[in-house]
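Record filed below.
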Amino acid sequence: MSDAVLPHAASARYGLLGLPLAFVALPLYVMLPAHYAQLGVPLALLGLVLLGTRLFDAVIDPVLGRWVDARWSPPRALKAVAVAALALGAGFAALFFPAVQGTTALLMWCAVALTGTFMAFSLASVVHQAWGSRLGGSAVQRSRLVAWREGLGLVGVLLANVLATQAGLAVTTIVLWLSLALGVWALGKAPVPRKTWARAALLPADQSLALPWRGQAFRHLMALFMVNGIASAIPATLVLFFINDRVQAPSWAPVFLGAYFVMGAASVPLWLKLIKRMGPSNAWACGMALNVITFIGVLAIGAGDTGGYLSVCVASGLALGADLTVPGTLLTGVIQRAGHAGQSEGAYAGWWQLATKLNLALAAGLALPALQWWGYGPGARDPQALQALSWAYGALPCVFKLLALALWWRLWRRQNLE
């Protein structure tokens, strides 16, 4: 590929697979526990199965990235995505329509099906991200590819939310199959990464896995990505508690969440323009600053203040566009500057996916114990407990965002990296 910017239609063909990959996450993480609980599986045993499979899901990503690099070619990559899509669709159906009964059989079924589903999801995600990174190009082109991938991912989240709650699991499964097939077909019609000799295939496995971490720019970007990601994941972990107990408007939850995601998707073109005008790094800093200003306002939200909280959702959705478009853009730039373009994108993508999953785990590990320590519990109406919820939901993310801004200035901006 040259440095000429790909047209939007070509970028959209690449990005379309992001829709079903985001679509599948909501049912797997939100609906699956309740589904098996309704089938009579004890929550404690189910929790152990979910913990084990999710830990496996996290650590497998770098290994899959190494495997992708060692065997990379566009036809092989497309074949891997097609096989992963088939396994993902089959695993999803098996999980929500188990063919067994009884606690032990259901637990074993869930563990096996969920492990296979997670592996298929991780493989498809790593190949898809590596494909986009291998396309490379200028900051404008990189941001356009990431924007289509992540923007269509938001559409997938919204679609899954509507179908899973309104149309039922059967319709949700059929739509997932159709969107996976369409995504694989579109990737086959997408721009093909340039052909480069994959030196990663000649490296020992341990060296290939560690290769990204040898670059200072990657280590700095990962530190920034993790801190910023925790700041974004804390509100995601606590949002329903805040809506139910602080705003006390549970019926408004679909409106609040819909406004956030719709605004996030709608803001992507704006952030693309800002990236083109001021560069991805500066655009990301603007997004972080907007998030801080927005979440300071959370501290003033009280019971029944639906209008005020809706404004917070809209403003934070606007800032979400920066987090969607910039980090992946900078990651591809790091790969290019390190001289690993066309060689080790899978390894980079694997570690990136691992960091994304760790962000959610770390956010829950920080926010939930802090809330309990401060005296809050679900359903609380005590003023001190609710104030603790506001501080955890609003102030704690601001602390991490400000830390991310400091890291951006110290580790990234002063080096003038894009």
